[in-house]
Amino acid sequence: MEKVTVDLADLRREYRMQPLRRSDLNSDPLLQFNRWFEEASHAESMDANAMSIATVAANGQPTVRTVLLKYYDQEGFVFYTNLESNKAKDLDGNPRASLLFYWSELHRQVIINGNASRISAAENVRYFMRRPRDSQLGAWVSRQSHVISSRAVLEQKFSEMKQKFARGEVPLPSFWGGYRICPTSIEFWQGRENRLHDRFRYSCANDDDWNIERLAP
Length: 217
Ligand SMILES: Cc1cc2nc3c(=O)[nH]c(=O)nc-3n(C[C@H](O)[C@H](O)[C@H](O)COP(=O)(O)O)c2cc1C
Known about the structure:
Elements: H1 29-43, E1 50-56, E2 62-68, E3 71-73, E4 76-82, H2 86-93, E5 96-103, E6 108-118, H3 121-128, H4 133-141, H5 151-164, E7 176-190, E8 198-206, E9 209-214
Antiparallel strand pairs: 1-2, 1-5, 3-4, 4-7, 5-6, 6-7, 7-8, 8-9
The structure holds flavin mononucleotide.
């Protein structure tokens, strides 16, 4: 059998961006995130809102995958998904999640730990109605995370749904919706030279009060 060994030890780059200083930080981590997100939206060629979300299953197995952040506010960070997917099962059993953004152009990483909850049906409908029609149909087609026999099954189901909902609005599937991750801690990481990176962690003390600590890189 063919074997592959790839040594990436010499694949390295220096991170020479501007520092992140304690005095630069907004006392509200959401406003700090907002500032970094706006900068990432300009700097990244694609998908500044792509984030990894780690969840943990009942048997203790963690899984991480990418989803798209759809909005954020003082209540938390919202993404949409199939409510019968593996990630949804994980979150329904254990609502703790970890989100990670890596903005490579800026040498920045943000890690958000927090508690997940399903968002309201009204909010789901509001967002679903703003999706392009084919994405709405796509939500009906896929039993996300389930094993399927072929791609043809998906394409067949897509045609069926197109016919079924040929007239009028595509309704919101009962098995599709959003989760909001309400943060308990948010860490901002700025790459610096010689691996002496800047890291600041906001931890929720109570309600709107956040402690800010510098962490060793
Ligand atoms: C760039 C990118 C964006 C994605 N956005 C979403 C998303 O917003 N919602 C979603 O359910 N899956 C999204 N996916 C697919 C997920 O990574 C994953 O394959 C899917 O949700 C099934 O995950 P699960 O089986 O662990 O539940 C995205 C994948 C990529 C690469």
